[in-house]
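## retry 2 of 3
previous attempt timed out at serialization; input unchanged, resubmitting
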Amino acid sequence: CNASLAAPEDPLDDPCVEDSITRYLNKPEVRAALGVAPQAPAKWEACSTEVNNNYECGDSLVSVVEVYARLVRDRGLRVLVFSGDVDGVVPTLASRRWMREMQGVTLNETWKPWRTEDGQLAGYTERFLPAAGKGEAVFATVRNAGHMVPRYQPQRAWELATRFLAGDLPGRDPVREDVGSEEVVVLL
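## retry succeeded, writing output
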């Protein structure tokens, strides 16, 4: 963080927001609760040159599409995948494409608008169902959000997650017995 930058009025635009996260994650009681190993570095850092210089991305290039398909198709879980519509890291179109690759899970409802409680257009949803059994995957966009949706659109992120958990997203009936009742929220 560049300490010479003045803190903006909107804390979400604060380039130093990681400072409070760093302080929190370095508290002894938080480290203990997280099970941080004694041999771990004494101080957690958001950006570590040592980690960056030794990072090997081989496993990050492995597709996990089948993992999501199994969660929905075989375990009967409800999965929410969401992307900010101005995310330059994981573009909306890329998320839509990989979701269509899930074997045994097919697109059931496409591009339904969802709105916030005050009626503003918040994004769009698509719904995927397994060929047989319970479960569903919902893909949602969040309007005007970047890669870290809760940081850019906290109210919309909150409404999306709580409405998904309540079974109250557009283009679908409230949670039905044939859909399943366990939830997994995936942040993208």
